[in-house]
Automatic annotation (TrEMBL):
Carbamoyl phosphate binds at residues 54-55, 104, 134, 137, 272-273. It comes from Subtercola vilae. Residues 2-146 form the Aspartate/ornithine carbamoyltransferase carbamoyl-P binding domain. Its EC number is 2.1.3.2. This is Aspartate carbamoyltransferase. L-aspartate binds at residues 82, 174, 231. Belongs to the aspartate/ornithine carbamoyltransferase superfamily. ATCase family. Keywords: Pyrimidine biosynthesis, Transferase.
């Protein structure tokens, strides 16, 4: 694996390898000294053309725990705001000796363009491109599900037979797309629940996913192991996709009543940031079934694993 651009192209073996190495990284993170020397002397560039808190800080923490040097690049206040192209930015980073690039970009496909070019000779990690994909988010979600379901027996396990319901703004969600491809590869059954206006065209026929427009009926029919709520991405909407916030919350939000209708062991997930009171209630977000903070913690372990596998040349963790 030269780059990590998409979960759609990950084999089950590659996905399980990342998840298993992340188990080792999680163990490292519990030590008093939370560092490995694996990437000492290497430089990781966080190249972010969109705003981010969790993902950027998580990648920075992951790189530093592997002893890499980190350069954080933000498009705001840089030459990009003056019209510099992605090519010129990449060539500048190459001249500075970047050994790995983590890129978030508002344009779908930008990480693929960077990886397929000869502008920079370094592994590229997609940290979110437009509405296309967000592979490390899907990996940390799968890692979280596996740990909740199997505990100490997680290593080497896929998610065969696990029922996952993903609810909300599927149309604009790169998280939903990456989770669909990865969870399907790992053997899970995925159902999208959303207003008809927020289901991507062709999803019903072209994607390996169940489609529902009725959240309550889906809960009754599937008795899901996992319910994953998606953020309403109003910044990507240029039209009215539902009448108002109150109606959306009533029909497709995870409120306290819907939480009570779930199995007691059903996992509640959200990639963040959350719109409390819209797609998820405070009671659901803060419940014992919620994994929201675990997902943040596990994100560091997953991103350590990805950087380690792409940049160290090793396939086993050397403490």
């Amino acid at each position: 694996m030269r780059h990590l651009l998409s979960t759609k192209t990950l084999s089950q073996g590659e996905a399980l390898q990342i998840l298993d190495v992340a188990e080792d990284m999680a163990a490292v993170s519990t030590r008093e000294v939370k560092k490995l020397p694996a990437l000492r002397g290497k430089t990781v560039v966080n190249l972010f053309f969109e705003d981010s808190t969790r993902t950027r800080i998580s990648f920075e923490a992951a790189a530093k725990r592997l002893s890499a040097d980190v350069i954080n690049f933000s498009a705001k206040g840089s030459s990009v705001s003056k019209g510099e192209s992605l090519k010129d930015t990449a060539q500048t980073l190459a001249a500075m000796g970047a050994d790995g690039v983590v890129i978030r970009h508002h344009a779908s496909g930008a990480p693929h363009v960077l990886a397929e070019s000869n502008w920079i000779d370094a592994p590229i990690v997609n940290a979110g491109d437009g509405t296309h994909e967000h592979p490390t988010q899907a990996l940390l979600d799968a890692f979280t599900i596996r740990r909740r379901l199997f505990g100490d027996r997680s290593r080497g396990r896929d998610l065969d037979g696990v029922s996952v319901v993903i609810v909300g703004d599927v149309m604009h969600s790169r998280v939903a797309r990456s989770n669909l491809w990865l969870l399907q590869t790992l053997g899970a059954h995925v159902t999208f629940v959303a207003p008809a206006t927020l289901v991507p065209f062709g999803a019903e026929t072209d994607w390996p996913v169940g489609i529902s427009y009725d959240f309550d009926q889906t809960i009754r029919d599937t008795r899901p192991d996992v319910v994953m709520m998606l953020r309403i991405q109003s910044e990507r909407m240029n039209a009215a996709f539902f009448p108002n916030a109150r109606e959306y919350s009533r029909e497709w939000g995870l409120d306290d009543a819907r939480l009570a209708s779930l199995r007691p062991d059903t996992i509640v997930m959200h990639p963040g940031p959350m719109n409390r009171g819209l797609e998820i209630s405070a009671g659901a977000a803060d419940s014992a079934q919620s994994t929201v903070l675990e997902q943040v913690t596990n994100g560091v372990s997953i991103r350590m694993a990805v950087l380690y596998l792409l940049m160290s040349g090793d396939r086993e963790v050397q403490p």
